Amino acid sequence: MFKDKTILITGGSRGIGRSIAESFAGEEASVIVTFKNSIDEEYFNSKNISFYKCDVSDMKSVQETIDDIIKSRGKIDVLINNAGVTKDGLLMRMSEEDWDIVIDTNLKGVFNMTKAVSRNMMSKRSGKIINITSVSGIMGNPGQANYSASKAGVIGFTKAVAKELSSRNINVNAVAPGFIETEMTDKLTEEVRQSYLNSIPLKRFGKGSDIAGVVRFLASADADYITGQTICVDGGIIM
């Protein structure tokens, strides 16, 4: 289904992003992953995945990366804006720096990448853009004012850009994960884990593959008539 397609995934060095990248690589797609700091050597040597060091919050870094990809591949068929960070803390204790880092990466990064990639998609009048948001951007989460604001912004951005790019046959959608098994959830205490599990109707954390499957669907021809939507993959938390 994705053979000869160029798939770009930001922040794919670990967690959900890595699951998505490996999922597309298994579909014989040409997969490109961006990372900001580091990536493990075994993953870096994956046969069907190429890697670019890129800071999505920096437009210069983004534009250089996209220009290089277009020069070498000629096109980008699917963009998955996954790069994100957390700097949790109660509002009264949250520093301006922690607010700015999260907004710049999670929201401005989506703007930067989408703007840079959409030019190529518009010229060939086709493309899929999938933004990874969060249920925190829908229902809010104590201690995550910065993160919830950034992810809510991604949802609004998705709707606006979907309307702007629809005439060029470009679909823009978002996926909102709930609690997914990642390095972050591995660090939770058993008490906190149980508290989260009690709030999930399906009584389990999600897996990276749960998100990857929905992303693959939205990137496929099966989703050609879907745009401007946010699909929650959350075990039923916000029903």
Major β-sheet, in short? 7 strands, parallel
Strand proportion: 15-25%
How much helical structure, as a percent, in the residues? 40-55%
- Helix and strand element order: EHEHEHEHEHHEHHHE
Total beta strand runs: 7
Report the principal-axis shape.
globular
Structural class: alpha/beta
Please list the strands of the largest sheet in the order they lie side by side.
3-2-1-4-5-6-7
Radius of gyration: 17 Å
N-C termini distance: 32 Å
Low-confidence stretches: none
The total of helices stands at 9
Tell me, rounded to a whole number, the average pLDDT.
93
Give the key terms.
239 residues, alpha/beta, 9 helices, 46% helix, globular
What does this protein look like?
This protein is an alpha/beta fold. The chain is 46% helix and 15% strand. The protein contains 9 helices and 7 strands. The protein has a 7-stranded parallel beta sheet with strand order 3-2-1-4-5-6-7, sandwiched between helices. Helix 1 links the parallel strand 1 (6-9) and strand 2 (30-35). Helix 1 packs across helix 9, helix 3 runs parallel beside helix 4 (96-124) and helix 4 (96-124) packs parallel to helix 6 (145-165). The two termini are 32 Å apart. The mean pLDDT is 93.
Topology:
Layout: E1 6-9, H1 15-25, E2 30-35, H2 41-44, E3 49-53, H3 59-73, E4 78-81, H4 96-124, E5 127-132, H5 136-139, H6 145-165, E6 170-177, H7 183-186, H8 190-198, H9 208-219, E7 230-233
Helix pairs in contact: 1-9, 3-4, 4-6
